Amino acid sequence: MKKILYVTDVLRLDVATLDFACYLCNLSRSKLVGIFLENIEGEARSSKAIKEVAMESGISLQTDNPQEVKERCTAEHIQLFKDACMQRGVTGLVHRDKGAPLEDIIVESRYADVLLIDASTSFSAEKESVPTRFVTEVLADAECPVVVLPERFEGLNKIVFTYDGRSSSVFAIKQFTYLFPELKDHSVVVITIMEGKKPAPEERYKLKEWLHDHYTDIDFIVMDGNVKTGLLDSLLLRTKDFIVMGAYGRNAFSTLFAPSHAAPVLKLVAQPVFIAHH
């Protein structure tokens, strides 16, 4: 892997999330490309809202002009990004995208290995719940795997694969493994929640066989019950883990990931979540 994207609104840069982004870059010897999005074509936020968002980032402003606010924020946040990358020993590059954020991100993802995004990223005039509509659409349409960033990063303990027997969950496991071979010595936990149709025994065996070719320490957890409740119960108690989930594409995401179970996980789990879909 060589190219990782870090997505942010020009008005808001959470430097704390760069700890995890730079960890992945150092791990994989990749460059980090900061995608600074400016919603010119469909800006719905008022001048007051734009200034408030900017001030939440700690930037002092003497103007209410939205374009001047954006330019000031862009300059300061790009410098913060470059400084953070340099301090962490990562090659950091910057792309300024000034069109329609979703369209810009999809094109960027087409030529990248992994895309990193904060679940709260939003260009809406209204306050949104997590994951926001913008993030949901990015997850549905991105043309590379997406990692939803943790609020803070204090080290990596285990890798958690969620497996339901469907091709999407296996695809996500394989994509993660191919992209991060450097994590082969980390402990792996495979969680399966049994509800409705169960993974065929021969398929579970084939997955175990494949995983043992790539990892050395593997544990399998199988539980009965509701998938969403079971996943949340299993994942909420974990710390410093990297969660891997499969997804199905735009139709599924149109109703907040249904029939996938990623949405409630993203709402409540603080760990990084890797999502890949066909």
Automatic annotation (TrEMBL):
Classification via Gene3D superfamilies: 3.40.50.12370
Annotated protein name in UniProt: Universal stress protein
Source organism of the structure: Chitinophaga agri
